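REQUEST ID: PR-0412
SUBMITTED BY: lab tech R.K.
PRIORITY: routine
TASK: structure prediction, single protein chain
INPUT:
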Amino acid sequence: MANSSYKTGTDAINNQLDQMIRLIKAVDPEGVITGEGAMTKDLIGVADVDFKNVNVWSILAVLAIIAISFKSISIPVLLVASIEAAIAINMGIPYFTGTELPFIANIVIGTIQLGATVDYSILMTTRYHEERAFGRTPKEAAQQSLEHYSQSILTSGLTFFAATVGVAAISKMELLKSICLLISRGALISMAVILVVLPAALMLCDWIIRHTTLKWMVPESANAKKSERVICHEKSLRIASAALALTLAASCAVPAFAAGSSSFSKDETVYAVMNGDGSLKEHHRQRAPVQRRRPVLRDRQVHPDRHPEHREQRRVHPERRRAGVEHR
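STATUS: complete
OUTPUT:
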């Protein structure tokens, strides 16, 4: 049994374990060392191998997805390189500040930061592609991309930062605190790289992108024809929607008019009294009262005084004529 005063996972105890392993192997080739320090050293060795494998396969998978989406060879390299540069900056800061990181930090940051922030670069490149396809210059396309998508990238990056920096500030576990601090800082670094470096890289590499991407630049005449087809298609859709709406409105209104002009009416009402078990106790019918319509007189009735013959028969008394009073 051997005791060490060095902390677990440090370079000092790892060097000490290497010396002890050499001494043990010289005496017994099958001898091993156990304990916290030895187990941590083995985990670090396994994590280094896993980091290399995971990092390579994750980068290849992202490259393949972007290459299939954009039908390009240069765009995947450019986008992944920008994110890997942000990851390198994030992992380099602890070296200059003298901060010790957990042995699994490389695996976690290399996968999470790449997968969570590569969509920023995809969003920016998609807008740049659309602007270039409509005939804008590389500078104008980069400006339009920043104007339209910078707010979305800022919102997403700041949300990612706020969700992880709180855990780093509150947690008392050193492992969780270090990883969350790296993730939150990586979100800010990736956001800055996409907003500042990527548009300039797209402008500088526009010639390479144009010659290594399938259908990157579309002529303006083709865009005009495409826009005309889109406009005609939208108009036809609007006309079809209006016709469908009118048809539905007419189909809903016809039953209402038919019910209003129907000559049928309810003749009787049946009232029933049910028992508790659902059987019929009694019932009776009540016929609706018959509404008789008043006859409509087609001939116009004329007041007797307004008839021409009666007007001629009016007489005025001679004595009242002087007073100006008429006698009918």
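NOTES: Residues 62 and 246 are 50 Å apart (CA to CA).
REVIEWED BY: pending
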